[in-house]
Amino acid sequence: MSQKFTTLTSLAAPLLEDNIDTDIIIPSREMKTTGKTGLAAGLFAGRRYLGARTPDPDFILNRPGFGAAAIIIAGDNFGCGSSREHAVWALLEYGIRAVIAPGFAPIFAGNAVNNGLLPLVLPRAAIAILAAASGPLHIDLPAQRVSCAGSDFKFAVTAEAKAQLLEGLDPIDLTLQHAASIAVWQADDRQRRPWVYL
Amino acid sequence: MPSLFDKLWDSHVIAAMPGGASLIAIDRVFLHERTGAAALNSLAAAGRAVADPARAFAAMDHIVDTFPGRSDVTQMPGGTAFITETRAAARAAGIRLFDIGDPDQGIVHVVSPELGIILPGLTLVAPDSHSCTQGAFGALAWGIGTSAAEHALATGSLRLQRPPSMRVSFGGRLPAGVTAKDMALALIAAHGAAGGQGHAIEFAGPAVMALAMEARMTLCNMATEFAAFTGFIAPDAVTFDWLHGRRYAPSGALWDRAVAAWRGLVSDADAVFDREIHVDVSDLAPMVSWGTSPAQAVPLGAPIPVFSGPGSRAAHDKALAYMGLAEGQSLIGLPIDAAFIGSCTNSRLSDLERAAAIVVGRRVAAGVRAIVVPGSSAVKRAAEARGLDRIFIDAGFEWRESGCSMCFFAGGESFGAGQRVISSTNRNFESRQGLGTRSHIASPETVAASAINGCIAAA
Q1: In b/e form, how buried is each residue of B79-117, taking b as 16+ CB within 10 angstroms?
Q2: CB contacts, 8 Å: B41 with chain A
C-alpha cells in the first residue's frame, strides 16, 4: 500500500516557518476529487502560483535546483490544522518523501507514516545547520541518521513507525492478524459496557 | 493514582503491539462526505468490510452548501461527487448517514452529541481534526486521516503510541461576557500553537466544571489548535443531565448502570501528569486573533504585541503583512467586511442565543455581510422555535441551513481576497476562509457586536 522508505539523498527545500498548516499544504479548493490522487498540482497552491497557475519564482520549490527536492525542512508544528490526508498525498505525489521539522501535528505525522512519508524530528539548532547546507542531505532510516557535508545527526523514530516505513507495511493487515484478540476483547466489553454496542 | 486519561486509555487496550504501540479499541467512527467516499471505497476495493456498521455514522457537512433549498449540487467544483459517492458508499456499507434533508443532519461534532452517539468513557474517531470537541463528555475523541479511518472501520481498533498526558487547570471565576472560546484562545496565545503538542489534555479546575455542556465542547474543540492529541473533561452531573434521553444513549436500568460506571471517570487526587499548566480565568478578557495562527491572539483592546518568540521573526512579520496590520495597533475599531457565526466551535443553540441577545433590535452595519449558520438542523429548528432566526434576519444577517460552511470552503463558498472577516470559527489560517481573506477568530458575542458596529468591537 504505502511507499517504502529506506535511504534518501536529495536537496532539501527550506520552508522555515512554524505552523505550516494543511490548508497551506493543500487548500480545500484544490481537493477536487473523491480519490487520493490528482493532488500534486494543488500542493502549496496559495503560495506556489501567481494568478492563473503561473509559478511564483520566489516560492522555494520554484527556485532553480529546488524543483526536484524530495525533502522539505520546516518550522515547528508542521501539518497543523485540518486532518486532511490530502496534504500527505499531495506531498508524495509531487515527489516529497521526507519533512524535517522540530515537531509535527500528531494527525499529520500519523498520516505521513501511513503513506510512506518520513516525518523527521530534529531540534531547531540541527535544523538550522541542515537548512544552511548547500549540497544534498542524506537520510538513512535504518541507522536513524541525517547528514549534510560536515554534519551528521541522529534522529528518533518509534519502532512501529520505523518498521512500517521500512517495509511499506499495511497496518490493517497487521491488525487483522489480531482479529481473534479483538473479538475476545469485544465480547468481554459487551458485559462490562453493554451500552456501547448499538 | 490513575488520571482520567489513564482510565480511558487503559480500558481500551486490547493488546500490546511489537514496537511499543497499543492496539486500542474504537467504539465509534464518524465519517463525513469530504473523505467518507475515499475511506469506504478504498476499503471496498481492498475487499474489506466495515466490522460493525451499527457503531459507524456519517453526516453531510463538509461539502454540502448551506443555502435554503439546497441539493446535491454545490458551488464547489466536483462537489456533487463527494456527496453522491459518500451516500452510495454509506448505504452499501450499512452505515447510518445523516443526509441532506434529514432532520438530524448537521456538523459531525454537533450531531454526534445531540444524538448521544458520543458518551462518557467512549473512544470516537473521525477524519476531522475537531473530533476532540467530543472529549467534552469524558470521552477520548480525536481526529485521524483517511487511512486510519479505514483501519478503524475494518478492525474496530487503531494502533497507537500512548501519548503523553497534560492537565490544564483553569482556576478562578470567568468574568461576565468572557467565554470558553476566550479561555481556549488565551491558553493557546500564552503557550503557542504547538504548546500541547501530542498530549492527551484534561481540562480541569473549577472554571471548567462551572461551564455548561456546550461551552465545554467549545473548549475541547480548540485542543487541536493547541496541537494536542486530544482534549477532554471529566463527566459530571452537567454531562449526565445533558445526555439523558438522547437517542443513542442508554435508557432505563442500563442508563443507571452506565452513569454509575461513568462516575468513576475522574482523575484520582494523586494522579500524575507529564505536564501541568495552570490558568487563572479571573482576569481574562474577550480574545480576538490578529494573525494567521490561533496563538496570535490578544485581549480585545490590547495592542498587537511586538515579536518576542518562540518561532521566527519572519513568520510574525509575514502574518502582520498578510493581515494588513502593524505591531502596537489595537484591533478595536478595525473595519470589517463580514461577520460569520457558525462552525463546530460555536454554532450550538447557546452560542446563537448569546449572539442574538446582542443583536436583538439592532442592525448590521452598512456594507458588512453577516451570516449565521446553525451547527445542525436540530439547532436550526430549536433556534427558530425561540424566534432567533427573526432576530438575526431582522438585523440583516443571512440565516442558513446547517453545515461547516464558510469556516473553510464548504459548499464552495468563500470570502474575497483582502476581505476582513470576524468569525466564531477555530482557524484564522492564511486563506482558510478564502484566498487572501483576513480572518479574526473570536467568540460569537464579539462577532455579533462587531457585525453591528461594522468594526471589531466589544460586546
Answers
A1: bebbbebbbebbeebebbbbbbeeebbbbbbbbbbbbbb
A2: 34-35
